[in-house]
Structure formats: C-alpha cells, structure tokens
Design goal:
It is built from two helices and five strands. The protein is an alpha+beta fold. The chain has one domain: Alpha-Beta Plaits, CATH 3.30.70.100. The protein has a five-stranded mixed sheet with strand order 4-1-3-2-5. A hairpin with a 5-residue loop joins strand 2 and strand 3. The longest helix is centred in the N-terminal third of the chain and has 12 residues. The chain is globular, with a radius of gyration of 12 Å.
C-alpha cells in the first residue's frame, strides 16, 4: 500500500474534476480526498496499491471531458489510513 500526494494544474476547476476524481478513485478502490486549491489547482491524496495509484495518475493527466491539464505532480508520502474517498469543499 502506498500514499500519493497529487497536484493537478490547468483548467481543472469548474469542470467537475473533483467529482470525476472521486468516481475514478472509488472505482479503483482507493481511499483519500480531493479538493480545490486557492491557486486554481486540484490537490489529491490517495492511498491504495501501486497499480491502482498509477491508473489514477494516468487518468489525472486527462481528467473529465472539459478539463485542460497542464501538469500533474506527485510524491509518495507516509500512509495515513483513510477509510473512504471524499471531496473536500474547504
């Protein structure tokens, strides 16, 4: 099990990026959260097996249909032990 912190920049707010990320993460069995950042990026923390995290990373490079992704950055960090995947609105 691994924990990734992911930052996605581009036109990723106002295009259902968070909701679509949650749908994909739940589909993959990942736990964590997604939220908008004040700099117009989207921030994701996700935990699960490496293969599923890689699928999520690849998906993040496209995102939902109206997104325009310029960059996806990620780092592996310590496990937190999330119980579900959620959208944070703050």
């Amino acid at each position: 099990m691994k924990h990734y912190n992911i930052t996605v920049s581009g036109k990723v707010q106002g295009v259902f990026y968070r909701a679509s990320t949650k749908t994909k993460a739940v589909e993959l069995g990942l736990k964590g959260f997604v939220k908008n950042q004040s700099d117009d990026s989207v921030y994701i923390e996700a935990e699960g097996n490496e293969e599923d995290l890689e699928v999520l990373l690849n998906w993040c490079n496209q995102g939902p249909p109206n997104a325009i992704v310029n960059e996806v950055k990620f780092e592996e960090t310590e496990m937190i032990g999330f119980r579900k995947f959620e959208v944070k609105y703050f």
